[in-house]
UniProtKB/TrEMBL annotation:
Pfam families: AMP-binding (PF00501). Residues 36-433 form the AMP-dependent synthetase/ligase domain. Coiled coil: none annotated. GO terms for molecular function: ligase activity. This is AMP-dependent synthetase and ligase. InterPro entries: AMP-binding_CS (IPR020845), AMP-dep_synth/lig_dom (IPR000873), ANL_N_sf (IPR042099), ATP-dep_AMP-bd_enzyme (IPR050237), OlefBLtnSynShew (IPR054910). Keywords: Ligase.
Amino acid sequence: MTEVMDKLKATPNQANLCRHLAHAAITTPTALAVAVQKYRGGKLNYQEIDFVSLHQRSDEIAHALNAYGLTSGMKTVLMVTPSIDFFALTFALFKAGIVPILVDPGMGIKNLKQCFNESQPDAFIGIPKAHIARVLFGWGKGSVKKLLTVTEGGSASNAGVAANIFASFIGGMSLNKLLIRYPMQNNGLSKPDTSYNMVKLNDDAMSAILFTSGSTGTPKGVVYSHKMFEAQIRALKEDYAIKPGERDLATFPLFSLFGPALGMASIVPDMDASKPIKANPDFIFAAIEKYQCSNLFANPALIEVLGLAGTSLTPAIKLNSLKRVISAGAPATLPSIERFTHLLSAETPILTSYGATESLPLTKIASVDLLSTSQKTDNGGGICVGAAINGVEISIIAITEDVIDTWHEGLSLPINTIGEIVVKGDMVSHQYYQRDAATAQAKIAQGNQVRHRMGDLGYLDEYGLLWMCGRKAHRVETEKSVLFSIPCERIFNTHRLVKRTALVGVKINHKNVPLLCIELTDTAKIDKNFDESRLFSALKVIALAHKQTTTISHFLIHEQFPVDIRHNAKIFREKLAVWAQQELD
């Protein structure tokens, strides 16, 4: 056993994150690895798999994929809903050195087609709905040569038959039929349970392509290496203190994969991961209770949904098994964080993390510390996203659209100076796939390392804490000043009739001026006595009371802001700017 364990240690040019799954299969073979919740027939059901079974099934799939003609270095779209097969397939792809292309279905048909045109996949693995869309919209047309259909239920008879029929109609093969046709025991080896010899790669070699959501611009394929994945796993172990044997309620498919890699069970609730605000809180609470989950990963939108649901009950829900809650993906709202803390034990923190698809996680801050910054945030100081985690270096550079080829220390701005956030660390990606111009714009070389320009603005304070001030693209420049979205908006969000605001730039008399779009609270929307002019007068008083907002004197009420599907927090200010200009013209 010692010899086997030695082989699983990470060494240069011998990288594969599946070594963690192999380790768990040896040390805790019968421990729960994945549980998937499904609501069927008016009740909740759960499918489970342990570590050794997950390891063996992914071995079998990796072998079958090779026999089917998919080999190391080839690329495949993976559009499979969270399920045991999703986990087994993803680990199988990594084991075989096949590069999965992961996209957010919520990004829209047009963006999805662009993603597949850029990534030029060799294969397409998906559920029937994904294959139908593939045919209708021409996804991967001209590059995809291998097709695989995955039907919920895996090898169960009805599901298997349905998958086989569908696959024969749409082309390709079902996963069930693939495993029957190419079993491991028929590969010429004497033992039917001989394990798959996973591919070992250079730690900087491409292991996956993850497309950004496109919520703040055009989706781009981020090239992931095993080194990046290893850095993320290390951060979860060291900075978030996640230990083997824990159970995680995972609401985001990519993060859920880290569970088995950490020796932690991933409990997947029945929800659409691309639309967390539509999740049924009762399902999530039930899964946490059934498995006594110690960790919860949820974005701010879901934190808001769960907090509202849990505190509205009498008595309020208590999630006493949770040791930590990790929130990432969008700026957190302090009221939602505070509300959710009432569902937790006093010693359980909500750890808000900052990062992006290109580099995650970068910082963290506990809820008790975050809530203590509310006064500064409400007065235009930005949102505190905490201190850098181990191995991450954060710098602030002057705001510019110019390409910066090479890093030098003279680029760093002094403390408490707003500029673009730049990060360095092993979890920082080196390039976008087939997007040389975007890579040049976002990356700064430093020897054999790369710094990433986040496209976010912020500053470091005297304690080394990072404060977010919004996207670089969302700043509003006038003849007199530069205004930043988060500091300005949070000042006005304190008004009792305001749900949220969005700063945009418009042209008035041929001059660029700031304008604030306002979304009212539900109470204000139905108030028959609501007076728009009175609200605008009150907002002008607020504007003059803060140096960040003295130049804001134009306001418009918008019925409902256009926002991203996943987070319900990333406001499409570009759309609001067009709307506001039309309203003024």
